[in-house]
Amino acid sequence: MELRFITVLFVFFSFNLWANEGTKEDLKIIPYVPRVYEPSAGEKALNFGIGYATQWAGYFATQKKVIKEGGSYQNWRHNILSPHFDYDNFDYNIFKHGITGNYYFLFYRSRGYDRVEAFFWTFLSSAAFEFTIESFTERPSYQDLYQTPVYGTIIGIGVEKLALFFHGQDSWWGHTLGYILNPFALIPEWKHEANISFTPYYDTKKVGGLVTYDF
Amino acid sequence: MISKILFLILILISTNAFADKYYFKADRYQPGLHLLAAGGLNASMYRYNFDRQDQGIGLNFKTDVGYYFNSQFAWEVGSIVKFNSVSEYLIWDTLFTTGFRYRFEKFPWTESKGIYVRGFVGKAPTVFYIHNTPHIYKTSHSARVQYNGPVEGFAIGNMYNGTNNKVWFMEYGVSHQRLDRSQGVNNDGDVPVVTFKDSSRRIDIYSLYINIGILVF
């Protein structure tokens, strides 16, 4: 119930604050605005690969029992060619897939993609999961193929705006809430200025280092 | 199978082109890929082939991913999610559709250049949550019954230019779903399990919508 409520809030927030991506002018005066640039083909492949590896890890971590009971290479071969309309509950199909898509979207935004490109790569990541990972245990779902990237993008735009609003309060609680909502903002490259540093320390007896992160 | 493949290919094509770098206006579409989202109300009539008829009013949420070929014409893949509380059950249906959008440069009775029409066809997985009083599904022993079948519809709307290059719209639509395949579904943990399949029951759903929405990008 809480999840649904929060999702609806994000959707309304995204309705209220649509359009207006971070511009160069914004970058000069507002910290925490995503830096939009054109990633190279290599960077795009790397970003997709990082996401794909994370999807595999997440799938094995959360679906261990289902994979053990019903997962097989034969399933995979059959399933990838037979997508269907699934029988999941709306909790899964709308809210959980929407929230998952929101993280795909925010990840790509954190890597410098504009909204349209982030949506496109969210779609690709979602399709890769449906056709090449989850197909070990079930057939790809038309609902998930559409709803994960589309609802994820809408929620993601709202979450991004809300996180920026909290960062804009310029207080410890504001930054904390901002990072909870959009943890990908912690990736150093996301911000337009370096905000992480490492200072090595050593003497004759000890070796160490100090990592600092500027909130 | 062919329709499924076509559906997938259309989705892939639709996401393979990005928008040009100038603003989308209500009276001048920007060629490229765009996403619209809207919420609203629907009134639906349910006619069953087993001597029953219901009506309901509910909420709906719609999204359209469209490739805009020029300033008037677009091809779209969309969904309308409807929730209706009817008699003893909650009905959740999702209309996955594809179709075309056309904006009129001139339209009778108005000066507006934002008026458009949409036609769409697709599939509509529709779920009946039958709670504890499943008097029309007494023998199913299922938590819910999922129907599937084709849908077709038509909509007319008007787009408006807001402030800061924002665009919003109001749309009226009608749709007809012909649901002729049903499956009973129970959940085993998170995994849905089909308890029965039936092709003898048919439901026709006629819906009217009103939606207010925005251009997301």
Global morphology of chain B = elongated
- Uncertain segments of chain A of ≥5 residues (pLDDT<50)? 15-20, 22-31, 190-194
Sheet of most strands of chain B? 8 strands, antiparallel, barrel
Distance between the termini of chain B: 32 Å
| Structure class of chain A | mainly alpha
Structural class of chain B: mainly beta
> What is the H/E order of chain A?
HHHHHHHHHEE
Largest interface: A-B, 35 and 40 residues
Radius of gyration based on Cα positions of chain B? 19 Å
Oligomerization: heterodimer
Helix run count of chain B: 1
Strand content of chain B: over 45%
Fraction in beta strands of chain A: 5-15%
- Percent helix range of chain B: under 10%
Integer-rounded radius of gyration of chain A: 20 Å
Beta strand count of chain B: 12
How far is it from the N-terminal to the C-terminal residue of chain A, by CA?
32 Å
Structural features, described:
The complex is a heterodimer of chains A (215) and B (217). Chain A has nine helices and two strands. By secondary structure, chain A is mainly alpha-helical. Chain A has a two-stranded antiparallel ribbon. In chain A, 35% of the residues are buried. About 10% of the residues of chain A have low confidence. In chain B, 6% of the residues lie in helices and 62% in strands. An eight-stranded antiparallel beta barrel of chain B has the order 1-2-3-4-5-8-9-12. In chain B, 42% of the residues are buried. Chains A and B meet through helix 1, helix 6, helix 7 and helix 8 of A and helix 1, strand 1, strand 3, strand 4 and strand 7 of B.
